[in-house]
């Protein structure tokens, strides 16, 4: 065989490998509304940038006559390429080969590119579409999963890790995405669960569908496992690329600052009117967020989960930031178990990857009740407290309205190393609201007044005195807990100035093996 024959053989092998499980299975994949592994990679990466590795790997199994059926690539496509010119490593599970099930060599392929990504300092993207462990390989496939999990753990906080679930992801396979920074699920075509509907029914008697047990909607609304529920794979792929706009390549770099055409000193007069006159009246904090950020561009995480707090990425004068904001439009913006977990996770991701945090505060306190206490609101609330206190990135806090009790401390207060803490004139910073405070401070006097009208007048008078003396930003400002009281319409300019000033900030934590966050 001369060199030309060998080159032709190489070309033929490449063509065979690119067909995966064959035309028939590719057609079946398309019929289910799903792209193939290679199509997904081509859509995620910049055109022509993909460099594939280990195209010719096959499995090594001989049990159950497996040696008679071999496919090049063995069910996963791996390699690296670029997104907006920046290097990323990527793997995409190929459902057309053995249902995308994981073998020993399949795991080795994934581990190889994860190791390289950590050495290079580049993000890792995993596209999941797999039937789980390859049963024919037994414990070898389980060991393969554990090897991947170990690398997910080592890469955590080192390089960004994004998981896209575009098909099945069940059993032990779910733990790799769960260990990554961002999980995106496609609606109707993906699912995640540790134990499927059949085993669930056998063990518990519960009869439940795949979608209701682990579909994208369930994980986006109830469990919080999915950060994004995409309508389809196209939107999911867009979200992968969009998320990486706000993150650096690794923990030693800063996010890329881009050119912005949105004026720094843009005044927004509507902000002066946006807080309702009644402190009990709701408003949508996202209206404030979209007004403040560059070009109304806000990438919200967990949009459908724990709606009483809003988190996501945006830019101020081209500088990426993470935003955390209480949402008065849902449960009055109260902090509960899910909101605390959601925000704590996001704050820690921002801190891991050097993304400054802007916090918008309007919080009446923690949600009371036995269900919250039994569920561990103390420990879960402490997670958010811990996350803010541990974070060393620039932290800019704007108190919009209520900031009561322990929730005031938790929401990036000055005492948790908040760098710049501003308040609007509408801010109410106190141990509790006027009504509760007066009941405690003047309860005996109130009970001694027998005339109902006189009692109401007395309460109204004392509440007015309490508001004048405590439910305002000036008491906090008097002690330096608030750096300045600002006019709402100037907020964008003040945030941008603060971010520019704090860009060279250096803050450190005591040396230790690792912290023991209350999990």
Give the SSE map.
Layout: H1 3-18, H2 23-31, H3 37-44, E1 51-53, E2 76-83, E3 86-93, H4 104-120, E4 124-128, H5 139-155, E5 161-165, E6 168-170, H6 175-178, E7 182-186, E8 191-193, H7 197-204, H8 210-214, H9 216-223, E9 228-230, H10 233-244, H11 285-292, E10 298-301, E11 309-316, E12 319-326, H12 337-352, E13 357-363, H13 370-374, H14 377-390, E14 395-404, H15 405-410, E15 420-423, E16 428-430, H16 434-441, H17 443-448, H18 452-469, H19 474-478, E17 484-485, H20 491-501
Parallel strand pairs: 3-4, 4-5, 5-7, 6-8, 7-9, 12-13, 13-14, 14-15, 14-16, 15-17
Antiparallel strand pairs: 1-2, 2-3, 10-11, 11-12
Can you offer a commentary on this structure?
This protein is an alpha/beta fold and 519 residues long. It folds into three domains: 3-244, 2-enoyl-CoA Hydratase, Chain A, domain 1 (Alpha-Beta Complex), CATH 3.90.226; 269-432 and 472-501, Alpha-Beta Complex (2-enoyl-CoA Hydratase, Chain A, domain 1), CATH 3.90.226.10; 434-470, no CATH class. It contains 20 helices and 17 strands. A hairpin with a 2-residue loop joins strand 2 and strand 3. Helix 4 packs parallel to helix 5 (139-155), helix 12 (337-352) runs parallel beside helix 14 and helix 16 packs across helix 18. The longest helix is centred in the last third of the chain and has 18 residues, at 452-469.
């Amino acid at each position: 065989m001369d060199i030309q024959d060998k080159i032709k053989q190489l070309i033929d092998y490449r063509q065979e490998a690119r067909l995966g499980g064959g035309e028939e299975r590719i057609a079946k994949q398309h019929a289910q509304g799903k792209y193939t592994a290679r199509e997904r990679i081509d859509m995620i990466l910049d055109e022509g940038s993909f460099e594939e590795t280990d195209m010719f790997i096959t499995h090594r199994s001989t049990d159950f006559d497996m040696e008679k059926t071999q496919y090049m690539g063995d069910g996963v496509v791996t390699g690296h390429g670029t997104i907006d010119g920046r290097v990323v490593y990527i793997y995409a599970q190929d459902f057309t080969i053995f249902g995308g099930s994981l073998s020993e060599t399949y795991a080795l392929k994934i581990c190889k590119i994860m190791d390289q990504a950590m050495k290079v300092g580049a993000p890792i993207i995993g596209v999941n579409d797999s039937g789980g462990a390859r049963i024919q390989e037994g414990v070898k496939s389980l060991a393969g999963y554990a090897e991947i999990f170990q690398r997910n753990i080592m890469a955590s906080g080192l390089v960004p890790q994004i998981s896209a679930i575009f098909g099945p992801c069940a059993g032990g396979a779910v733990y790799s995405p769960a260990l990554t920074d961002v999980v995106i699920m496609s609606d109707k075509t993906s699912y995640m669960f540790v134990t499927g509907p059949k085993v669930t029914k056998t063990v518990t008697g519960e009869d439940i569908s795949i979608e209701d047990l682990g579909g994208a909607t369930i994980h986006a609304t109830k469990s919080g496992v999915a950060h994004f529920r995409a309508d389809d794979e196209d939107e999911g792929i867009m979200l992968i690329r969009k998320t990486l706009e706000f993150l650096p390549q690794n923990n030693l770099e800063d996010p890329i600052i881009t050119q912005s055409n949105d004026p720094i000193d843009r005044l927004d007069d509507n902000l002066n009117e946006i807080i309702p006159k009644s402190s009990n009246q709701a408003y949508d904090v996202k209206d404030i967020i979209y007004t403040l950020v560059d070009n109304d561009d806000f990438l919200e995480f967990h949009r459908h989960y724990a709606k009483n707090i809003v988190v996501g990425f945006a830019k101020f004068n081209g500088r990426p930031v993470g935003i955390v904001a209480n949402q008065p439009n849902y449960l009055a913006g109260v902090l509960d178990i899910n909101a605390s977990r959601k925000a704590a996770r996001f704050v820690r991701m921002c801190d891991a990857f050097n993304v400054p945090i802007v916090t918008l505060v309007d919080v009446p306190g923690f949600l009371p009740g036995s269900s919250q206490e039994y569920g561990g609101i103390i420990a879960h609330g402490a997670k958010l407290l811990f996350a803010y206190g541990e974070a060393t990135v620039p932290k800019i806090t704007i108190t919009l309205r209520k900031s009561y009790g322990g929730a005031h401390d938790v929401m990036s207060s000055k005492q948790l190393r908040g760098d710049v803490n501003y308040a609007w004139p509408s801010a109410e910073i106190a141990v509790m609201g006027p009504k509760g405070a007066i009941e405690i401070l003047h309860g005996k006097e109130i009970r001694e007044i027998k005339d109902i009208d006189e009692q109401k007048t007395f309460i109204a008078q004392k509440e007015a005195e309490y508001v004048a003396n405590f439910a305002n930003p000036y008491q906090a400002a008097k002690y330096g807990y608030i750096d300045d009281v600002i006019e709402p319409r100037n907020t964008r300019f003040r945030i941008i100035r603060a971010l520019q000033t704090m860009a060279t900030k250096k803050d450190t934590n005591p040396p230790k093996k690792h912290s023991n966050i209350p999990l």
